[in-house]
Specification:
five-stranded mixed β-sheet; 21% strand; alpha/beta; three-stranded antiparallel β-sheet
């Protein structure tokens, strides 16, 4: 190949490479698909043969469709999901409560999700729970990587036993390995109905705190957080948000 022609070809390839990564292209095209990570927690997040669904994911898919974003859903336990967000292996997560520790690597923004009380499930005939103080001396199953708010997470007097998922937490109560399991109410009621484990729900509860849609601070999608927030606001204004919520009443 003549020298001049080779030089022209190299310049052309260099220019093409610069164009493909140009900041003037839509950031979504540069960043690739948005990697959404989280545990399977019906009715909020579900993974099945037809894909990801549930209250949180249906809201996100509606917003993404409006913006033309491509989503990839990754199912992992909550603790692993948070690690992936911290290291930049994932871009977005739905449902974490806000804590100073998490704010180091998660951008919370303005998208708050529906609030859900946390409730306790025990064997029938258990001594009633009326306050946080009543939990002292009792063994309580919690899901690893979750936060529950209401002073529960920071009370060092409580005996918390971490498990991988909420079904295991309820089964531990049945077997007498713990005295109670704490779950988001909507999720706990569904699991109890499907499992037929015969537990009862205590009337006292932890008041719900706002769960958030968060973006990893190390994600290239962080620059488009404001755009995502506008899409969610539009969904609230045109009634789409409420219609999706109604599916999970």
């Amino acid at each position: 190949m003549p020298l001049a022609e080779g030089s022209r070809r190299r310049r052309l390839l260099s220019a093409l490479g610069a164009l493909l990564w140009s900041p003037h292209l839509p950031l979504a095209a540069q960043a690739g698909p948005l990697r959404v990570v989280g545990s399977a927690d019906p009715p909020y997040r579900s993974h099945g043969p037809v894909g990801a669904s549930g209250l949180y994911y249906d809201l996100l898919k509606e917003a993404a469709q409006r913006m033309g974003w491509t989503l990839v859903f990754i199912e992992v336990p909550s603790a692993r999901a948070l690690r992936m967000m911290e290291t930049g292996e994932a871009d977005l997560m739905m449902g974490p409560l806000r804590t100073p520790e998490r704010e180091r690597f998660l951008s919370y923004g303005q998208i708050g999700l529906p609030v859900e009380d946390k409730v306790f499930y025990t064997l029938p005939g258990a001594v009633p729970l009326r306050s946080l103080a009543d939990l002292q001396g009792r063994r309580i199953a919690v899901q690893r990587g979750k936060r529950y708010g209401g002073g529960f997470d920071t009370d060092m007097r409580l005996q918390r036993h971490e498990v991988g998922d909420y079904r295991a937490a309820l089964e531990m109560v049945v077997r007498g390995r713990v005295d109670a399991a704490v779950l988001p109410e909507r999720q706990g009621d569904i699991l109890l109905r499907k499992s037929g484990l015969g537990l009862v729900k205590q009337p006292w509860r932890l008041p719900g705190e706002v769960p958030y849609l968060v973006i990893a601070r190390r994600s290239p999608w962080l620059a488009r957080q404001a755009e995502l927030e506008k899409a969610f606001q539009a969904m609230r204004e045109d009634g789409s948000w409420q219609r999706i919520l109604q599916r999970y009443r």
